[in-house]
């Protein structure tokens, strides 16, 4: 299959708020590895960077520690009352430090690199939380956030609760034999399909919900050629409902390559809130269930 090359940096910046939810992450390192800390000595004023990090803090009942959030942290609604220090992949050290945090808790992949390097060299403890798009990755996040805030026992309770919910959600599609082929479309700039490959949040969610990623041969997000889309033969198109320049159903299915696929013939499109679908946090088990039901309907077992 032929794929278009990765988007140039300037063009990618147009979609920064979208891609921040779901770009693949490489070279993961342990929380606080560069700084040698895993527990905040003073957790009274924490700046949370990354939507799932903020959700976990609230799920632990430790939101009293938060003094700020990033712009991807829009759930729960109560978090919106916190000062916004900017988009997690376009941070400015001045913006983060302006809230006078006693610690910074950031999802791995926050950036740009230069800004993160400045924050790591500041006198404020900086703990980095790994991101793995998997069942186990969610539990790891919970335990690391709990440890950072000094509430290990509460984190273990939450991790066990989420473990049970995730296991149950994954079992709901275990008996389904004919798996749907899913094409996750991030954007359609200029009529070109930007789709999710392996090592992405979208790929992880499709698999957890009992589907198959319709594309293969690349990781991250890339523009696909018309030939590659047709060859992928997706049964369903999956998109975020609240990101991007909006793409109408008619625009999507009017694309000749999409129209030539089983998904295009059936006009099968699922739209789900991006933070809910791709957050890999406390709500992911529910998102798995909802996506599975959208894909398989009554075949999904309780």
From TrEMBL:
Signal peptide annotation: 1-33
SUPFAM superfamilies recorded: Helical backbone' metal receptor
Top-level taxonomic group: Bacteria
Transmembrane segments: none
Cross-referenced CDD domains: HutB (cd01149)
Segments forming domain Fe/B12 periplasmic-binding: 45-299
InterPro entries: ABC_Transporter_SBP, ABC_transptr_periplasmic_BD
Keyword tags: Signal
Protein name: Hemin ABC transporter substrate-binding protein
Organism from which the protein derives: Mesorhizobium intechi
């Amino acid at each position: 299959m032929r794929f278009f090359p990765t988007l140039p940096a300037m063009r990618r910046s147009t979609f920064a708020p979208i891609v921040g939810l779901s770009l693949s992450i490489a070279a993961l390192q342990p929380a606080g590895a560069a700084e040698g800390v895993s527990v905040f000595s003073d957790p009274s004023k924490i700046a949370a960077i990354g939507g799932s990090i903020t959700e976990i803090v609230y799920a632990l009942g430790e939101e009293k520690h938060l003094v700020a959030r990033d712009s991807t942290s829009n759930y729960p609604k109560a978090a919106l009352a916190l000062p916004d220090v900017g988009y997690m992949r376009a941070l400015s050290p001045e913006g983060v430090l302006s809230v006078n945090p006693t610690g910074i808790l950031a999802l791995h992949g926050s950036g740009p690199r230069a800004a993160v390097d400045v924050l790591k060299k500041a006198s404020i403890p900086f703990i980095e939380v790994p991101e793995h798009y998997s069942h186990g990755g969610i539990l790891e996040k919970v335990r690391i956030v709990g440890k950072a805030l000094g509430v290990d026992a509460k984190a273990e309770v939450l991790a066990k609760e989420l473990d049970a919910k995730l296991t149950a959600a994954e079992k709901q599609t275990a008996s389904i034999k004919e798996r749907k082929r899913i094409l996750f479309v991030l954007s359609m700039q200029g009529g070109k399909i930007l789709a999710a490959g392996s090592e992405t949040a979208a790929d992880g969610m499709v698999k957890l919900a009992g589907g198959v990623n319709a594309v293969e041969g690349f990781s991250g997000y890339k523009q696909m050629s018309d030939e590659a889309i047709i060859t992928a033969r997706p049964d369903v198109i999956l998109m975020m409902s609240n990101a991007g320049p909006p793409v109408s159903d008619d625009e999507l299915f009017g694309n000749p390559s999409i129209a030539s696929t089983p998904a295009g013939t059936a006009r099968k499109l699922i739209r789900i809130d991006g933070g809910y679908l791709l957050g890999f946090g406390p709500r992911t088990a529910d998102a798995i269930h909802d996506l599975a039901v959208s894909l398989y309907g009554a075949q999904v077992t309780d």
